[in-house]
Each structure stands twice: as C-alpha cells, then as structure tokens.
Design brief:
Layout lengths: L3 E3 L9 H5 L5 E4 L2 E4 L8 H5 L5 E3 L15 E5 L1 E2 L2 E2 L2 H13 L6 E7 L6 H4 L6 E6 L6 H15 L3 E5 L2 H13 L4 E5 L1 E4 L5 E7 L4 E5 L7 E5 L16 E5 L27 E5 L9 H10 L3 E4 L1 H5 L20 E5 L5 H5 L6 E6 L12 E4 L2 H17 L6
Helix pairs in contact: 5-6, 7-10
Length: 397
C-alpha cells in the first residue's frame, strides 16, 4: 500500500500540509510532523508543501489469506429509528449469493437506539446483527471507524452496501481503510465457487456491461442502487443473534451545527405506475398527452435522459443509472429506444409496455408487451378507452 512520508529535515513547519489534509491525518508533535493511519495517500499535502519535504512512499502489496475471509456482511442503513428499505433488497441478494456457498449473511447497524432495529430485522435471514450505538446524525469518519471495527472482527469475504448518499460516503472510506476494491452501482452480482464476487455494472457510457473482480484483497465491497435488486419478503422469525458492540475512544472530528429535515416527497422511485417519455416525443407540448395518461392511471410522468437534457422535464423525473432506479408494477415506455443505462434503471418493473415505431428497438427485448406503432396514434386511443371505462364504472386496478 502507498503512504506519504515527511522528511522532517527539510520541513519548515509552515503547517500548510496540516491545513490541506482532508482526513486530518497529519499531526504536529513538537518540532516534527507525523502522519497517522487515517492517511489515504491522496497527495494533497505534497502539492502544498513549499519545501518539498513530503513524498509518496513505495507501494507494497500485502498478502491476504483469503481463506480467513468468509461470509457476507450487509450494511443496514438506519436513521430516525427506521431501517432503510434498500436493506431488504441487499439482504435478498446476499441470501441468494450465500445459497451457493456455506456462507452466512450478517448485518451491521450503526446509529442511535439501534436496539429498536431488532423488530424490523427479526423476520429476515440474518445469522448475526452487530449493533453499534452512536449519536443520531451520520458522521462519515466515526462511522468508518465503527464499520472497520466490525469488519476486522468478522472478516467477511463480501460487504454489500446501498448506493444511497450515506453508502456512497461510507463505502470508499471503508474500502480505503482495508486497501481493497469497491465497485459502485452494481446491477448484478455473482458469487463464484472460490468466493470471488463478480460485480457487474455498465461502463463506457453504458455501451458495455463490465464484470469486475477483486482477486487479491478482501473484503470485496459493492454498492447497489435502490430498486435494482428485488427485496426479500419477511417470513417466519429467524434465530438472529443481535450483538451490542462498542469501540472505546471512537469519536468524530466533525461538528454538525444544524440539521434541517428535508420534507419527504413521493418520487418516481416510489410510484407503482409510470408513463415514460422518450426521444420519440416530438415537442414539449406533447408531454401533456402522456401526463394525462399517467394521471388517468393513477401514476406519474417520467422520462429518459434525452428528454431531461432538452429541458422539458425536471431531472428528478429521469430514469436510468444517471437518474432514478424504479421498480413499478406498470411502466409504459412511449418513444423510448432502450439504452443500456435506461434499461438498467427500470428492468425490474413487473409489467413493461413499450410503444415504438422501430421494430428493432432494444426496449422490446425486455418489454412484456411490445407495441410496434406510433405513440401519437396509440396513446390517444388509450386515453379514450380509459375515459370510457371510467364512465362505465369499470375499476382500472
């Protein structure tokens, strides 16, 4: 692994490196500077040093006995005494992976009043859940210390995390602490017989699906976006062992001055019915027709990236890896060709109706009901038929 080295003979004690370090890893001890274990070797200190007293150390590959690393650890996001819904999607995938090996699925909860998470997790197939009690608000540096403590004790071969704001902040820190690999926003995971995790995600603008492995280090970190994986259903109560843990002296260097709650709003990720506008929509005014269809069905209008980039629809309505991942009961794609990035964000929908004039459109490969035709002819007929059904007292559900 790489590390930064300070030549204290050259150092002029200007302390610019201390101010520049984003990880607070450099300390002044008398007339000497030392670099602590929090250093990520980012090189920022070397860039600002006027005396040229800091250099990058040599990279040394540390051997890892992979036989010591077993089982799967799921990071259970827990805030305001509630388990995040992505947890159940991760547990479902972890259980599927563990079924092909002798591994157990365990979990870790970090937060305030973690004991209250027991009732929310007892109906899911978790062998052990480690509970780390701390303050209410997420602080990445403190959470990394507690998370790393759990990983050190358990030595999991695989660590699964949600691709949420919290997961995206914590995952790279933890992976860096163990000098191991991390693949973000995976769309599929496969566990080989040797416990090597194949992490699949779109690459090069969605033109290929990359298969990424971490052959030499452990654990293998992967984040998964919300709604990409199917959630596991609760069943009978499992004999989960809940273990309260603590790390003596663990603290955060961050101070939260104020926390302003963001009002909860039902976005497209929570909708059961979506009507999606693609590049086949000729002008912005035509979106009113698709929105009318969405309202009649009790759903919401969404769009592809191309429509958002035209400025016709707000970015929070965008489906795909660069937008939202959705799993509705019904999705009607209107004039959508079906890029890899888009389909990765909606392929989990229960029922997909695709309307496109191009018989070779990629969206037809995953559509349950492909309709080759002009949306400007088909959608008005759908609207008309639904309105007739409502007048006749037919319940659409």
């Amino acid at each position: 692994m790489r590390n930064m080295i300070i030549n204290n003979e050259k150092c002029i004690l200007c302390e610019k490196c201390i101010e520049s370090c984003p990880f607070f890893a450099i300390q002044k001890n008398g007339d000497r500077l030392t670099i602590g274990e929090d250093c990520s070797a980012c090189g920022q200190c070397r860039e600002v040093c006027p005396a040229g007293a800091i250099k990058m150390g040599e990279s040394k590959k540390e051997a890892v006995n992979k036989e010591e690393w077993k089982h799967i650890l799921v990071y259970i996001e827990y805030r305001h005494e509630k388990v995040h819904p992505i947890t159940y999607q991760l547990i479902g995938k972890a259980s599927e992976l563990a079924a092909s090996s002798d591994d157990d699925v365990c979990g870790i909860v970090i937060g305030k009043n973690t004991a209250l998470a027991k009732n929310q997790l007892k109906h899911y197939p978790l062998k052990k859940v480690f509970l780390y009690e701390t303050e209410e608000h997420f602080k990445a540096d403190l959470y990394e210390k507690l998370f790393s403590n759990c990983i050190d004790k358990m030595k999991p071969s695989v660590v699964l995390m949600g691709g949420t704001a919290e997961g995206r902040s914590l995952a790279p820190r933890a992976a860096t602490a163990f000098r191991t690999g991390l693949t973000a926003d995976c769309t599929e995971l496969i566990l080989r017989d040797n416990r090597e995790l194949v992490q699949i995600r779109p690459a090069f603008g969605g033109n290929i699906m990359a298969q990424i492995v971490t052959p030499d280090t452990r654990p293998q970190f992967a984040t998964v976006r919300y709604n990409v994986m199917k959630p596991i259903e609760p069943d009978c109560e499992h004999e989960t062992e809940f273990i309260a843990e603590a790390v003596e002296g663990a603290y955060s260097k961050l101070t939260i001055l104020e926390a302003v709650p963001r009002p909860e709003r039902k976005g497209i990720a929570q909708q059961e019915i979506l009507v999606v506008a693609g590049k086949g929509v000729k002008k912005k005014e035509d979106l009113a027709m698709l929105e009318e269809l969405a309202v009649l069905l009790g759903g919401e209008l969404a769009s592809t990236r191309g429509v958002v980039e035209k400025g016709w629809v707000a970015s929070d309505k965008q489906i795909g890896l660069s937008g939202q991942t959705v799993r509705p009961k019904l999705l009607i794609a209107c004039g959508v060709s079906g890029s890899v990035q888009f389909m990765a964000g909606m392929s989990g929908a229960d029922n997909i109706i695709a309307i496109n004039t191009d018989a070779d459109a990629k969206i037809f490969h995953i559509a349950h009901y492909p309709v080759c035709g002009d949306l400007y002819e088909i959608v008005p007929e759908l609207i008309k038929g639904i309105k007739h059904s409502v007048r006749d007292g037919i319940h659409l559900a």
